[in-house]
Amino acid sequence: MKELALHILDIAQNSIVAGATLIRIGITEDMQ
Known about the structure:
Strand content: under 5%
Shape: elongated
Largest sheet: none
Number of helices: 1
Radius of gyration: 12 Å
Oligomer: single chain
Low-confidence stretches: none
Structural class: mainly alpha
């Protein structure tokens, strides 16, 4: 789970560096 959190943080940081003013990150877990 920590690795997933680091990937999400990386996406957010890259978006901010690219000039994003709104960042939406959705996660859906499939329990099947």
